[in-house]
User: Which sequence fits this backbone?
């Protein structure tokens, strides 16, 4: 397997906020704890050990809950060992989280988990006296069904049509047999196709809800690597979070701290985009297919879009008695995760890390250690035939990351038998007008405006001539343009990153059971560069 690399900034698909974070820009250092370098994990471990955030009793609850959640799962020895090891004070987790996308959704689901697995391995090599457990946090309490109810395969979208409400993890898998039948017909026959169909059927047809289906699927793909899958929607786990939920309901610390951080980010001269804004109360109420925001009105707490309301005393009693009915939103979920896991590092995509970087002061206020933040591996997979086509066309792989117009224009200029760059003519014209400016200065300054107008007119004329010539050459080289754009479409479906569009099944169909082991071997989570893989 051949690998090439391109910087995240050079791809053009990652925000300046994330690229500056990867460059450890000085102005961003107040918003994170330790940067993800292997030597910094020792400092993170020492902070966690000193803080004693997770007591032995809390670890016992965590292990007990995980064992219960794995009762009906074909657990590998490695995963069972990792779960049991979480009782020990020298065991820490490396965590990623993801929505319950149908059949994993886009490819980056795999890259998140592989980054997590590989970092745990790297840390064990660096710090052999500790145990490191890769964890996938299932976002079972999310409620945006439209974001997760489909996957793309060979240019087609397979969508699960269903009237859904409440937390997606509780959704019945009814109706997925129709998706399966369409997908099975489309994917065809053969060993790899049969394996994919079996995986879908066992996950979604043989399980009753989306949480169990997703757990089965992720475990089937990654159990050999010791991945531990956790569902945070558990009463025993939520009970540990009661003090933080009470603090949120009574004092709205998240709103205060994150709002202040957002102001600091907005004041930076870099025009960073704020990813999320906090609400005054960052908890949902969760019950009987319901997940709605809690709002405070005077001394009453209401659940929006319902008739449910609580007095202060009633709400405190409810959160104490039924903590499972309270669901943290995007602002509080990271805190919940860090409270119940002995976690060192969170691995996510650019958008995720952007909102995590808004949370450090909130964590400080709540006396919870802020985790190391690591950008997951990003990958472009190209086949041998695609790599050969690029080579035959003489196109460097970095060029295919350019937007369509820039990609075509650059290539046409390179292969044209005439020079379509009028820079020299423009420079010569500017030199001539410089002399005219000097003449006007020494004779009549009122002519300066006329000279400037004439210069602009003639430079615009050269621009128009250059564009017309480029357009004519595109027509002349239409076959070449057609082949290069077709290849770019294959590698960048819908002119977007492959990993944000294509489902893993498309590559599993070609590479079979070796796909994931090959990706595990190829990816280094601490490399901090975009990977181009030739498989």
Assistant:
């Amino acid at each position: 397997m051949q690998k090439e690399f391109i910087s995240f900034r050079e791809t053009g698909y990652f925000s300046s906020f994330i690229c500056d974070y990867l460059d450890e820009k000085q102005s961003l250092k107040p918003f994170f704890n330790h940067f993800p370098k292997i030597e910094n994990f020792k400092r993170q471990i020492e902070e966690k050990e000193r803080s004693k955030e997770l007591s032995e009793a809390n670890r016992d609850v965590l292990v007990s809950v995980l064992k219960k959640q794995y009762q009906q799962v074909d657990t590998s020895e490695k995963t069972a060992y990792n779960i049991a090891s979480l009782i020990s004070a020298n065991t820490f987790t490396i965590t990623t989280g993801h929505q319950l996308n149908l059949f994993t959704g886009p490819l980056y689901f795999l890259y998140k988990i592989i980054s997590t697995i590989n970092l745990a391995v790297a840390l064990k090599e660096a710090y052999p006296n500790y145990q490191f457990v890769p964890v996938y946090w299932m976002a079972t309490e999310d409620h945006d069904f439209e974001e997760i109810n489909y996957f793309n395969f060979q240019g087609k979208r397979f969508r699960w049509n269903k009237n859904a409400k409440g937390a997606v993890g509780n959704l019945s898998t009814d109706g997925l047999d129709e998706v399966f039948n369409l997908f099975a017909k489309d994917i065809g026959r053969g060993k790899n196709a049969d394996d994919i169909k079996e995986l879908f059927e066992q996950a979604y047809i043989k399980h009753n809800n989306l949480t169990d289906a997703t757990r089965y699927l992720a475990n089937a793909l990654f159990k050999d690597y010791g991945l531990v899958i956790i569902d945070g929607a558990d009463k025993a786990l939520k009970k540990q979070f009661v003090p933080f939920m009470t603090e949120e309901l009574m004092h709205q610390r998240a709103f205060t701290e994150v709002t202040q951080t957002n102001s600091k980010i907005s004041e930076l001269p870099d025009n960073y985009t704020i990813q999320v804004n906090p609400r005054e109360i960052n908890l949902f109420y969760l019950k009987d297919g319901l997940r709605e925001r809690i709002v405070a009105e005077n001394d009453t707490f209401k659940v929006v879009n319902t008739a449910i309301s609580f007095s202060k005393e009633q709400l405190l009693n409810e959160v104490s008695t039924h903590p499972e009915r309270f669901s943290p939103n995007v602002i509080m979920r990271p805190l919940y995760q860090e409270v119940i896991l002995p976690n060192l590092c969170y691995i996510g995509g650019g958008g995720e890390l952007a909102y995590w970087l808004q949370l450090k002061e909130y964590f400080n206020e709540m006396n919870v250690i802020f985790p190391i933040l690591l950008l997951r591996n990003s990958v472009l997979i190209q086949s041998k035939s695609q790599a050969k086509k690029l080579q035959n066309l003489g196109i460097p792989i970095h060029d295919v990351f350019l937007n369509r117009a820039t990609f075509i224009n650059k290539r046409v200029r390179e292969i044209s038998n005439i020079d379509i760059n009028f820079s020299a003519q423009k420079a010569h014209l500017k030199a001539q007008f410089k002399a005219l400016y000097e003449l006007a200065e020494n004779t009549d300054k009122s002519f300066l405006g006329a000279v400037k107008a004439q210069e602009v007119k003639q430079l615009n004329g050269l621009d128009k001539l250059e564009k017309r010539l480029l357009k004519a050459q595109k027509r002349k080289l239409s076959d070449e343009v057609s082949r290069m754009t077709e290849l770019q479409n294959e590698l960048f479906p819908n002119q977007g990153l492959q990993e944000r569009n294509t489902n893993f099944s498309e590559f599993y169909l070609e590479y079979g059971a070796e796909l994931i082991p090959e990706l595990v071997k190829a990816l280094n989570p601490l490399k901090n560069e975009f990977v181009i893989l030739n498989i």
About this structure: The longest helix spans residues 448-476. The CA atoms of residues 237 and 340 lie 7 Å apart.
